[in-house]
Amino acid sequence: MKHIFIINPTAGKYDSRQRIYEMADHLRTAHGLDVQCILTKKQGHATEIAQKLCQTGEPLRFYACGGDGTVNEVANGIIGYDNAAMSVIPVGTGNDFLKNFGGDMDKFRDAENLWDGPQFPMDAIDVNGRVALTIACSGIDARVARDVHKYSESPILDGKSSYIASLLVNFLFKGIGSHWTVELDGETIEDDFSLVSVCNGRYYGGGFMPVAEARMDDGVLNTLVVKKVSRGTFIKFVGPYSKGQYYKFPHVARCVAPKVVRIRSEKPDIVTCLDGECITSDDVTIRLSDKRLNFFGPAGCDCNRTARDI
Ligand SMILES: Nc1ncnc2c1ncn2[C@@H]1O[C@H](COP(=O)(O)OP(=O)(O)OP(=O)(O)O)[C@@H](O)[C@H]1O
């Protein structure tokens, strides 16, 4: 078994390379493991590295060292390969993926807790052939996520404050709704929408939680469809929405669990964020991936630790 640390040197506010090299060295010396550290060189590189290694057929354990973007890229590289599994060492700005594990998040910071941890399958979301693990959102929340990196470079803003800054700018200057045709299995709705959030997990945007009951291994994608609303309603809605209380606004938000969600627009104005990484198109199809992700974590961890019933 090989242990591969894929390190995004640009993730997070501080350089974490030295700390990761020390952890990797410790696994070599204390446990005699075959460990390799690889730095990413550009966006998308983590997927290329992981996929190439998976094709060798060797048994592999990957450690995505970065934020949600790095986690997403490694997942896209390994999903579908039986010989590979992944975990995460969080050194990013937001690390929303690991929030799903609740209080166990801190255990992921040390590879000593991970290298022989249990492996389990997790669901994934397929978005036009690309994979998201936590949430695939389209609409104002995706535009906010696309712009959030501009603000997260500020030394005075943490993950959540950067998200709020981006939300305010989009809300005040760029408008809330988009005219789309949304298909939820057989149902077709043409209307103005604020957002469509397809949730496998629960967190995005530095800790916002659209659907608290979403579970990451139940084969269900909880999908929140929010029609265009006035600025006044949006202001009242956003707080409860961020805490999984969409059901307090039944005239605005509807939560369903379709097998396939398709969004179409007359122009390429559909911004869709997959775990924070954004694509823009005029036709997006989102469904449960037919592949599951092999994931490993600290003993006793649970990707549904923070899930709740309505
Ligand atoms: N060497 C590199 N140079 C520039 N960008 C890179 C490099 N390696 C990876 N990236 C890109 O950096 C972006 C940000 O990475 P990531 O999301 O992991 O960190 P973060 O933004 O600090 O964390 P989070 O998304 O959790 O807030 C990703 O889009 C990734 O593709």
UniProtKB/TrEMBL annotation:
It comes from the Bacteria. The keyword Signal does not apply. PROSITE patterns: DAGK. InterPro entries: ATP-NAD_kinase_N, Diacylglycerol_kinase_cat_dom, Lipid_Phosphate_FormReg, NAD/diacylglycerol_kinase_sf, YegS/DAGK_C. One of its GO terms (biological process) is phospholipid biosynthetic process. Keywords: ATP-binding, Kinase, Lipid biosynthesis, Lipid metabolism, Nucleotide-binding, Phospholipid biosynthesis, Phospholipid metabolism, Transferase. Its cofactor is Mg(2+). GO terms for molecular function: ATP binding; kinase activity. GO terms for cellular component: plasma membrane. Residues 1-131 form the DAGKc domain. Belongs to the diacylglycerol/lipid kinase family. This is BmrU protein. It comes from Brotocaccenecus cirricatena.
